[in-house]
Amino acid sequence: MSDKEEYLRKLKEDIAAQHAKDTRTQQDFINNKFIDTDAELLAHVEILDDPVAVRKAMDLLTNRNADLKLRMLAPQKAIAAIGANSDYIQICMSLLSDTGEPEELRKAVLTLLATLIFSSGIFNSQRAAYLSILRTLLDDDSSSLREMAAAELAKVKDGVVQERLLKGLKGEATPIVSTIMAMQLLGFDLHAEQFPVVKKILQNPATDEPTKLQAIRILGNDPDSRQLLVDLMLDKNQPGEIRMTSAASIQVSHPESFIKLAKPILLDETESNDVQAVVLTGLLLNHDKAAVYDDEKFLNQLQQVSLLNATVPTLRKMSDRLIKKTTIERKSRKD
Amino acid sequence: MNIKNLIAGLNSSTPGNQIAAIIDAIKHRRSYRKILTGLLDIQHPVYLGRSSREVDHIRGYLFASFREAGVDSKTLPFLLATLQSELEVYPLAGAAIGLRGLTPPIPDILHYLLTGLNNIKSNDDAVSFETYVLTWPLQNPSSGLVEILKTLQWMGGSAISALIPLKTLQGSVHLAANVKAQLLQTIDALENTIPGDNCCTFEPHGKKRFSLFRRYQNLPGRVANLILENQEGKMCTYGQFFHGKPSVVVFFYTRCDNPYKCSLTISRLSKLQNDLQEAGLADKTKIAAITYDPFYDQPLRLKAFCENRGMVMNQDNCAFRIENGNDDLLHYFSSEVNFIGSIVNNHSIELYVIDACGKITGSYTQLQWDNEKVIRDLKTQEEKRERAAARPVMTAFKNVSSAFLSLAIIFFPKCPFCWAAYFSFLGISNISLFQYSRWLMPVLVVLLTVNLYALFRGANKRNGLLPFYLSCTGIFIVLFFNLVIKLKWAAFSGTMLILAGAVLNSIDPRIFRHFIHHINQVRINAYDKTRLIFERHALSKKAS
Known about the structure:
The complex is a heterodimer. In chain A, about 75% of the residues lie in helices and about 0% in strands. Chain A is mostly helical. In chain A, helix 2 crosses helix 4 and helix 8 packs across helix 9. In chain B, about 55% of the residues lie in helices and about 10% in strands. By secondary structure, chain B is an alpha+beta fold. Chain B is built from 22 helices and twelve strands.
């Protein structure tokens, strides 16, 4: 018997054993009359697929007297069965919108529904109702539920959440999420009108560094912010993180400008080694091979600087890699 | 305040609910339909600087208002294009509602409604058009699919052929309970209706760019000189590429997130390439795909995007970006696009047919173009080009007449002051021929003074002080050297200077600036070349 056949035979045996175990544990779960021991039994089940077991799990989910952990665990085990039944999906959605239910449970249900939106074949039939609930949740008392709902809506480029996030950033309404998260969520849609306000946040001297970093990441997509990012990248007085993130943003959005800016940074002996490392990575990833590998003068100078950088092994290694790649690139072109 | 003034005052900073209030105020008055139709243009300033979703919201609300305002032939393509190419539920639902303003229903819209139904089948959403500002949860929510089905039901006998696809849809697991209920209701209504008499039809046609003087007009200089960079990073001007062969131009951008717009446009362009090949026109035509987003769409991105969608790229089939002057190009094409900063916030599907001289002769916008019709247009242009090539004398005459006509248009006096200058120039040089010259003289001097004053006052708005100085000098020469010292040559030179001043002032300021810019360029180039020659000469001397 070949290795492959042996492997397949073993795999089949393992699956059958697991299935038998699941059937047994599900049966135990169905037959169990004591709610206290349900949690322990559920913990041993991989997936609930028996219709009776799923029904019992749903009963546990909606039972306000049951233990919270058990209520949260039950739908997780039956996720596939819930995704195949629109009545069960509706039960989950009504729990999500019920402000009388514990926050932890509603968060668990929202996570479950967020999984079903792409894994369930029939979830589309509930999509309109689900999005409506999420929009209502933007005003929920629970900040974490607000954040989760905003994130789910932002993923589908929803106009309602975009408007709320923008108003929050502009100070026209109470923010529903933190500034950093608002920028991150608006960043999912290029056409969300966020760039002017994000630019203002970045240029405000009172803005803290993590917020500035997020703003730089967002502004990488904005052609009108190119000069601002270039200035930050070249300003040696800026913190290293700000300069490195600016460099990465420019490298992604404006690769042609990046090459021109990167070369002098690499050849500048007074430059920060961290910034040089980011810039070198950017050059290695750049698609415009001719601009990187055909610049003889730059490569010769880099070779000399690389020898001086013997004290910084990573940088030295990367410079050598670029030079080696040049040789390979040129050789492949000749061939 | 007058409604027309309110509409005229709409701009990018007008709040959405204020726009909606104006729409609500006029939608019941059919006489105002033209005003609503004007708002449909994507390039309308009201959409400038807004997010895509806000534009969708305003346009969706506007579309729905045509149910009351009524739909005419200008409105219809906008509604149908939304159903054909939109993925956002709100504008699509608005378009479906707006179609109910058609009297009577046209069977041809059925295809577009079914396309819209298919587009949002898997991503339906709750909508409401009762108010512009929506409060969640909605009180009486409808949905995109429900609104399309309601419009099909409203079509009655004209939508009977939709029964088969609707019955197929019944088995779909993607439909919500309210959509299924509306679907059953629609099927039931259509089954119990009498087939319509199909009295009216709608067939999308390309628009012809008709101009009486087109054949005599040159391509605007600012467009002809625009520098295009192709997918290989090679540069050429608009005038160089769009010359010698008829062409097709489409607009797109690689960051477009609607698969039914830019991505499909390039895919369909590659199909057009194949069809042109089969029609034997591949070598006789050019194809250009121009990006709306030149800062992001670098040559490598253009190349990858077009090639991945099957477009064959070579010297006559290119994707272009224009870093400087993109606005001029979009203005020349009257392109249906609007922006938020440098990012596109909404655009239409656009294909233009260009003649062998680079001038636009036709366009297919909003709805997807039909390859057969585009090929027919290109054939017509190619035949015209061949005819022109076979008649060189006529072509030469046209060129000369075109130059003459251009001069006539440029130098035609456009204001009373210009007329004064022309008349005084014609009069003062031949004043001795008039019998009453003694009395005419002061009149002409007054006219010249008026002309001088106008030239001085208008210097900032028009072409600077050069025309004023020329006229001043001319008048001095005529009055002093000709009339006082009686030098004959002075009449001629003085009047020529007055004429030159009047002519320079008559030229359109943009053309004048372009002209001056061109002269400066020539001067700078000449200076650079001379310097280069001297430097080379100096170097060679040194080397020797």
